[in-house]
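Thread: "does anyone have the structure for this chain?"

Original post by V.I.:
We have the sequence but no experimental structure in hand. Need at least a predicted one for the grant figures.
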Amino acid sequence: VGDERALFRALAQGVGLGCSLSMKAQQLRERVEATLQDGDIMLVLDEAHYLWPLANIRDTWPTRLNWILTALVNHGVPVAMITTPQFWQRQKLIESKTGWASEQFIGRLAHFQQLPEALADDDLEAVARGVAPDVDAKSVKALVAYAKLSRKYLSGIDFAVRRARFIAKAAGRDGIGFAEIREAIQGSGLP
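Reply from O.Q.:
Generated one for you, tokens below.
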């Protein structure tokens, strides 16, 4: 999200807080802080590299990360950040441009887990079965092959299954099989 109000509105909605459109960023922030600090909630932030400033880097400190540290982590709120290597690249850029020191941030990282570049076929099969538990082994193998060939990777499995369900429904069928999976994959045009 681009501004603080949008960030805190998204967080408020994520933890089930009502937030009218007229609420200011500070009001939203206070409600989110109170809820997270008083509850048994873990905050999971996907695409955490967007927590770093995206514009005016020379003049902007990482206020979002500072907020996470001071308002959440310092109060015992568990926070998980899921990100790509862009996170560390942005961190180095912000440090070099602003003079912000990352020692306190790094010091608060309780656990860092780097995921493998690619998943094993067994893991891809488990994802395919999770997304489409009603398909046969041949369809699962096709979904795994598609995930490995497509730049969509895991989301390719989801895409192919959703498209296959659409194809089946349009043809008046309730379930999906290999024919629908194959048609969905072929119609994707790969990447």
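V.I.: this helps a lot. The radius of gyration is 21 Å.
O.Q.: and The chain has a mean pLDDT of 89.
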